[in-house]
Amino acid sequence: MADYYSDKLSAERLKRVYEIAPPRVQRYFEAEINHVLQKVGSDDLVLDLGCGYGRVMPSLTKRARSVVGIDTSLASLLVGQQILYGVSNYNLLQMDALHLAFRDNSFDVVICIQNGISAFHVDQKELIKESIRVAKPGGTILFSSYSEKFWNHRLEWFRLQSAAGLLGNIDYEKTKDGVIVCRDGFTATTVNPEQFLSSVSGLDVETKIVEVDESSVFCEMRKV
Q1: In whole angstroms, how large is the CA radius of gyration of the chain?
Q2: pLDDT tens sequence across 77-133
Q3: Would you give the distance in Å from CA 162 to the centre of its chain?
Q4: For residue 120, what is the domain's CATH number?
């Protein structure tokens, strides 16, 4: 599963996933990035984990001093370079979010949105710890997953992806309780508020859980 977004769902195919999203899902995208932008200042250095083809990078680069996007898919990053043509305050790097090649205390804001914490299929507490490591003291770390209220809209979006051949056929017997399972091996899980709080337990952050637009659940952390 860790290679799915690099091998099967990268670059133009990943871009198509977002293009076919129905209006309610498009609203979710907009609400999520607008919430993130409220946390970003004009002098901030921002790290976007799992940036894909740079979907939210244009919005971030207009708000922040500089933005670094990382992803494991080189093909997606190359598409991102095309999308960001003419923009100067960004870097796109091929990198594993669990092993970031940055010094401690480097970024003012670290984000991992659109359920990246699940999509990466790595140890979630270790992912959060690595994100905290590279954030500056007093810096903001934002992770998001889906609200349970968004389940029907999310499932409809995945039905459209499957129908377009972007994902395998959905296994409806196994798809439930926030987990979408496809017959080609793809699995999309969800992180609920209790799971977020468990993952940050014992870490040096102040944490709150915020629901946005009845679609996203944010785990908002401030590094102490």
Answers
A1: 16
A2: 999 999 999 999 999 999 999 999 999 999 999 999 999 999 999 999 999 999 999
A3: 21
A4: 3.40.50.150
